[in-house]
Q: What sequence folds into this?
């Protein structure tokens, strides 16, 4: 590198070499973004290749003696274990119930597996288990089997829970991420970013106080009401990890359509907006645990929306966008200024910016 | 949200865009310096609102992007030492060094922690007396006071396990370097509002005078940037070159004097290498001799790392405003935010990454049109 002398400047090209192929698991592989998708595409799909898995929906739907059975599984590694609006126990029920509900299934049974770190407080375990029991009973599902493993001190992070859920899909319902068609409406059931920001505010190092509560909730009764008024619902997803952006990007990709959302129509609580501004985060990438996105045929949108608004978990529901033919595979957003931009899927976790 | 919504108001923004169009009679090339401003321009598609005559080019003001490769390599080497806790701003973790990045170091067992403020690193040092805590202190003048405060605090507390790996860059020498370049195209600058909140405006006077170039200190919301563009266009059309301040709600002429004093007490000015550009004399900050005990470069035996980099991407020309990110053959194909080939693709504030995240649809459309016209021929 030569220094710049006065009067003449010599700019030198200076580029890093690209990093070699990914050879280790990074935290980003669990973020629900592009790295997670790569992992599924490169490692899991080829290993277990079958048409049910290939649908890549939140739940598998299989035919057993003429009945359509929905199966899903989810692991919960949330930190802290207790947060405003919920805890790992209730979350473990809501997450799995919602994954079943997004396929239109009526949730019936759950399994619960606990991986506990040596030295974990018995009192906290009781609190978590009680919360899980309450959430399951509120959702009308039974925990019918389970498992316990204890790992050495330092080999786990307090407590991890895995739940598997089984439900039945009523006849005539066929929801999948590849069914979005140009002209369809994108409906969001309520405000975004609440869960992610509630969790973030509890983490050490972030010294800000907020009243934001996680939106963790079981959505199956809302789904049942929606399916009850219309057969025009093409697809439903709960925008958890990776937020609304990742979910809509996935649908756009799977259906090979463009999705355009309207920035001004996004319901975001003032406190969540404030926290996101402060932390340099985009609420479109922040996790939700009690919200759903529905892709609905244009003629059915109004009936579905009305039904949703009559349910407490859908009171703030609104149309946030439209499916279109152009820009296949991309999510775009109309800004309040009338311009359009891409809303990309993130590689890994959203990183706070320096300034 | 007060003080934000007003500056994102579409009626005001459109009104300003109309005024800019009415005031423009000929082509002008303007550069915004700060990555935060680049981010806003791309996120809101502000360049789409401007008349064709106004070309916005993007400056070297993304602190993450211009941090030299050697600094990233040193941070990774430090993080991998079992006795070290490396604390960093979040967006430095994905920045590739020569062979790895801090995320990978973390996956290999390195203790890497994300902080919003260097004071958190001081706190970690206090709580972990048996470990050595290093803060990766990068950035422009904006982050310098907080980094200086961390060193000052650690020194007054007598902490012996805290140090800073410093890579600080200064804006005015970079503007000077751009202006003396024979290939320079920039005719007016939007100066970085947050840098000026700390440093004030005075040091931009000589740039305006020496190069007869208008400079407007601008904010970061859409209305701020459009207002700054209008102020520049009015000066250029009138043949004037003055220093103006659009970001008056944050920036005063003299800046934040106590912050400047602290920075001066802890840091001194030195030559600095910029990733994507090269060495610019007197364009960086390093810790003063009195703070040698808090300088990771001296506390640890890191040696002189010299990194050879292949001249593959066009980042230097992008950072000078000579090329648009989309002029690069690697853009979006071989060079993406997941696998960046050059500095501006590294952080979301880098020009290439901003184009990639927010503009890909326009690029795709352009490519399709090109292909169609080729096929038609």
A:
């Amino acid at each position: 590198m030569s220094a710049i002398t006065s009067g003449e400047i010599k700019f030198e090209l200076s580029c890093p070499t690209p990093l070699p192929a990914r050879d280790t698991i990074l935290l980003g592989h669990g973020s629900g973004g592009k790295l997670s998708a790569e992992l599924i595409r490169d490692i899991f799909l080829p290993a277990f290749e079958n048409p049910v898995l290939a649908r890549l929906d939140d739940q598998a739907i299989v035919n057993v003696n003429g009945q359509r059975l929905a199966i899903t599984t989810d692991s919960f590694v949330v930190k802290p274990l207790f947060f405003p609006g919920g805890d790992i126990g209730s979350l473990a029920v809501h997450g799995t119930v919602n994954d079943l509900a997004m396929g239109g299934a009526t949730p019936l049974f759950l399994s619960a597996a606990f991986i506990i770190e040596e030295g974990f407080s018995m009192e906290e375990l009781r609190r978590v288990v009680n919360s899980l029991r309450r959430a399951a009973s509120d959702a009308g599902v039974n925990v019918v089997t389970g498992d316990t493993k204890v790992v050495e001190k330092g080999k786990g992070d307090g407590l991890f829970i895995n739940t598997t859920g089984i439900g039945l899909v009523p006849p005539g319902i066929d929801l999948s991420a590849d069914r979005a068609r140009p002209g369809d409406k994108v409906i969001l059931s309520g405000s975004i970013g609440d869960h992610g920001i509630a969790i973030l505010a509890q983490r050490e190092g972030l010294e800000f106080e907020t009243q934001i509560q996680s939106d963790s909730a079981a959505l199956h009764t809302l789904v049942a009401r929606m399916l009850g008024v219309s057969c025009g619902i093409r697809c439903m997803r709960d925008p958890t990890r990776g937020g609304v952006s990742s979910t809509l990007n996935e649908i756009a990709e799977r259906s090979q359509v463009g999705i355009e959302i309207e920035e001004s129509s996004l319901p975001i609580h003032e406190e969540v907006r404030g926290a996101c501004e402060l932390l340099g985060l985009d609420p479109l990438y922040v996790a939700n645990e009690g919200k759903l996105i529905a892709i609905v045929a244009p003629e059915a949108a109004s009936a579905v929306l009305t039904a949703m608004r009559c349910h407490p978990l859908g009171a703030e529901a609104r149309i946030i966008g439209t499916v279109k033919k152009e820009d296949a595979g991309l999510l775009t957003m109309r800004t309040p200024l009338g311009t359009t931009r891409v809303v990309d899927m993130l590689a890994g976790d959203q990183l706070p910016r320096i300034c | 949200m007060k003080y934000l919504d007003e500056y994102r108001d579409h009626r005001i923004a459109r009104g300003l865009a109309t005024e800019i169009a009415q005031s423009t009679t000929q082509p002008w090339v303007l550069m915004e310096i700060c990555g935060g401003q680049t981010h806003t321009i791309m996120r809101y598609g502000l360049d789409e609102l401007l008349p064709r005559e106004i070309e916005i080019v993007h400056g070297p003001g993304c602190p993450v992007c211009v941090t030299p490769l050697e600094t990233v390599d040193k941070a990774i080497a430090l993080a991998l030492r079992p006795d070290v806790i490396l604390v960093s701003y979040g967006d430095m973790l994905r920045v590739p060094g020569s062979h790895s990045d801090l995320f990978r170091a973390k996956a290999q067992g390195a203790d890497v922690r994300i902080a919003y403020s260097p004071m958190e690193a001081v706190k970690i040092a206090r709580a972990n007396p048996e470990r050595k805590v290093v803060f990766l202190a990068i950035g422009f003048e904006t982050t310098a006071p907080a980094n200086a405060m961390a060193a000052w605090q650690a020194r007054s507390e007598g902490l012996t396990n805290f140090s800073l790996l410093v890579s600080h860059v200064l804006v005015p020498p970079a503007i000077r370097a751009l202006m003396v370049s024979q290939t320079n195209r920039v005719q007016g600058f939007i100066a970085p509002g947050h840098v000026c909140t700390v440093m004030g405006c005075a040091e931009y006077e000589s740039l305006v005078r020496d190069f007869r170039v208008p400079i407007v200190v601008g904010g970061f919301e859409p209305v701020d940037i459009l207002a700054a563009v209008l102020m520049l266009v009015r000066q250029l059309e009138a043949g004037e070159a003055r220093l103006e301040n659009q970001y008056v709600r944050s920036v005063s002429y003299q800046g934040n004097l106590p912050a400047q004093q602290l920075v001066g007490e802890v840091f001194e000015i030195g030559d600095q290498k910029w990733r994507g550009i090269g060495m610019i004399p007197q364009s960086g900050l390093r810790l003063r001799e009195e703070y040698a005990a808090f300088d990771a470069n001296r506390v640890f035996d890191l040696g002189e790392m010299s990194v050879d980099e292949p001249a593959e991407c066009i980042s230097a020309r992008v950072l000078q405003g000579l090329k648009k990110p989309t002029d690069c053959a690697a853009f979006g194909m071989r060079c993406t935010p997941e696998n960046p080939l050059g500095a501006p693709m590294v952080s979301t504030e880098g020009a290439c990454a901003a184009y990639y995240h927010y503009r890909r649809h326009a690029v795709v459309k352009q490519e399709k049109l090109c292909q169609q016209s080729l096929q038609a021929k």
Q: What stands out?
A: Residues 122-139 of chain A form the longest helix (18 residues). Residues 185-342 of chain A form a domain with the Phosphoribosyl-aminoimidazole Synthetase; Chain A, domain 2 fold (CATH 3.90.650.10).
